[in-house]
Amino acid sequence: MYTGKLIRLREYRKEDIPLAQQFLNDSETRSLMNPRSAYPYTLADEEKWFEALSANKDTYSFAIETLEGGKYIGGCGINGVGWKMRVAEIGIFIGDKNYWGKGYGTDAMEVLVRVCFEQMNMNKISLHVFSYNERARLCYEKCGFSVEGVLRQEIYANGQYHDDIAMGLLRSEWESIHKDGE
């Protein structure tokens, strides 16, 4: 559907559900995504989520698969689209740890940002990252995002409180980064 250097963003498929459930129930992955939720996701939870995908017209979810081999490794989405103000919040996760730290997340984020600006005509994209998720924060900064604010000690994870960092990227900033067709 949408292609980068290492990945492709595509629709979720029913066969992705068991692996998605496995990714989301991994304690390390879960702590990086949603430490507020302590209960495991059931197969029924994932099936309900999958069935509801087409019903929500302001949320766009994509499976992330590798270009080489077409392996499903995670997901990303454009959430809470504000069409009037041209803003959207995005999120991403790489669930397969074999692909952590190898550029797959950055490539997926760059493709997702490109979709927001070039396909949806958004003016601003925002996201949140937890202060202990340094790998994700570096990825977002590499893609052009800047820190816009810090919700101090908003998250309780791994036995202590952490900050929730709000980041944003304006279309004009993104265009200046990519002015040479990069």
Mean pLDDT: 90
Low-confidence runs (pLDDT<50, min 5 residues)?
none
Class from helix and strand fractions:
alpha+beta
Describe the sheet with the most strands: 8 strands, mixed
- Shape by Cα distribution: globular
Multimeric organization = single chain
- Total count of helical runs of at least 4 residues: 6
**Count of extended strands:** 8
Order of helices and strands: EEHHHEEEHEHEEH
With strands numbered from the N-terminus, the spatial order across the biggest sheet is 1-2-3-4-5-6-8-7
Helix share, percent: 25-40%
Helices and strands in order, then pairings?
Elements: E1 2-3, E2 7-10, H1 17-25, H2 27-33, H3 43-52, E3 60-66, E4 72-82, E5 87-94, H4 104-119, E6 124-130, H5 134-142, E7 146-157, E8 160-170, H6 171-177
Parallel strand pairs: 5-6
Antiparallel strand pairs: 1-2, 2-3, 3-4, 4-5, 6-8, 7-8
Helix pairs in contact: 1-3
Question: What features would you describe in this structure?
Answer:
This protein is of the alpha+beta class and 182 residues long. The chain contains six helices and eight strands. The chain has helices at residues 17-25, 27-33, 43-52, 104-119, 134-142, 171-177, and strands spanning 2-3, 7-10, 60-66, 72-82, 87-94, 124-130, 146-157, 160-170. The protein has an eight-stranded mixed β-sheet, sandwiched between helices. Strand 1 and strand 2 form a beta hairpin. Helix 1 (17-25) packs across helix 3. The longest helix has 16 residues, at 104-119. The two termini are 20 Å apart. 29% of the residues are buried. The model has no long low-confidence stretch (mean pLDDT 90).
